[in-house]
Amino acid sequence: MIKKIISSLVVVFILSSNISCKKIQSETENETGNIVDSTVTESNNDNNTIAEKKSKTGFPDFSAIEAGQQRKEMFFSYLKPLLEKENAKILYDRRFVIRCYALCEKGSELDSKSNNRLKSIAQKYKINKDSFTTEDDYKELLLRVDAIPIQLALVQAANESAWGTSYFAKEGNNIFGQWCFKKGCGLVPRNRPEGETYEVAVYESIPESIAAYMNNLNTNRAYSYFRNLRYQFRQENKPVDPNKVALGLQKYSGIGMEYVDILRMMLKNNKNLL
C-alpha cells in the first residue's frame, strides 16, 4: 500500500556500572548497526521510495498530502532511512572508540593515527582531551558517541515539524525545531517574545538537520539525563526503550514533562507505523 502511495506521489540514573573489557566485548558483538532496538537497520533500496525520488530536488511537500494516516506513512517512510544513515555513522565511530578502550585496558598505546582520530571524534562530541588513558575518559566519550533511538527521533520530528508541514521545515529544512543564537543565523519566528534573540536554524538539507539534532542530544548538557538513561540500557545489554529515555528530553521544550507526555502518546498512537 505504501509503495503504491509513494509511486503515485513521486515524491538519572547515576552511572554506578563500570565499563569493562567483558562489557565492551559484549556490546561489540551486538553492534550490528542497531542500539539493540533496531535503531539502525538496512535502508530500503526500493527505487520507488519518496526519499530517493526527492533526494535531488529537496524536501517533499507533505502539506500537499491530506492530513491523516497517509501523510504519517509518507513522512515516516521518507525520514526513517535518513535517520538510520546518520545513526550508522555514529555507531561506526563508537565501535572505533570501543576498540581503542580495549587496547588501553590491555596496556597498549595507540599509534598517532588512531590517537588523532580519537581526538577528532572527541572534539565533535565537545570533549577536549589530548589523550584517553583512563576508564573515566572512555566512559565520558561512550556516553556521547551513541545512536538515537529511531522511534523517538521519528515522533520528535513529527511533533516539531507538524508532520513536515511547518514553515521552518519547508523553508529551512529544520525538522527538529532547533534554535541558533547568532543574528542572521536562521529564520525569526513571528511570535518570538520581545527581548529574545534566538532564531530557528536553517540547514542546507534534511540530513544536515538530522546530524545537528543527533549531535545536540549527544553533547548538550541539557540532555545529560537522556544520555545516562541510554547508557544504562547499554550497560545492561538491553533494548533501549524510547518511552523511558524520552524522560531525558524534558528540557527540549519549555513545557517540560508535558513535552515528554506528548512524545510518549505519539509513540503509543503511531506504534504500528514506527
How would you describe this structure to a colleague?
The chain has 274 residues and is an all-alpha fold. It has one domain. Helices cover 53% and strands 3% of the residues. It has a 3-stranded antiparallel beta sheet, with no helix packed on it. It is globular.
State the gist of this model.
With 274 residues, this protein is mostly helical. The protein has helices at 2-9, 21-30, 50-54, 69-105, 112-124, 135-144, 150-161, 167-172, 206-219, 224-235, 242-245, 257-269, and strands at residues 179-180, 186-187, 199-201.
- Secondary-structure element order, N to C: HHHHHHHHEEEHHHH
- As a whole number of angstroms, the C-alpha radius of gyration is 20 Å
The counted number of beta strands is 3
Number of domains: 1
Helix amount? 40-55%
Q: Based on CA inertia axes, which overall geometry fits?
A: globular
Span of the ends, CA to CA: 16 Å
**Continuous helix count:** 12
Runs in which pLDDT lies below 50 for 5 or more consecutive residues are 1-26, 28-57
Strand order of the largest sheet: 1-3-2
Strand proportion, as a percent range, falls in under 5%
What does the largest sheet look like? 3 strands, antiparallel
What is the structural class? mainly alpha
Overall mean pLDDT score?
83
Q: What is this structure's SSE topology?
A:
Blueprint: H1 2-9, H2 21-30, H3 50-54, H4 69-105, H5 112-124, H6 135-144, H7 150-161, H8 167-172, E1 179-180, E2 186-187, E3 199-201, H9 206-219, H10 224-235, H11 242-245, H12 257-269
Antiparallel strand pairs: 1-3, 2-3
Helix pairs in contact: 2-4, 4-6, 4-7, 4-9
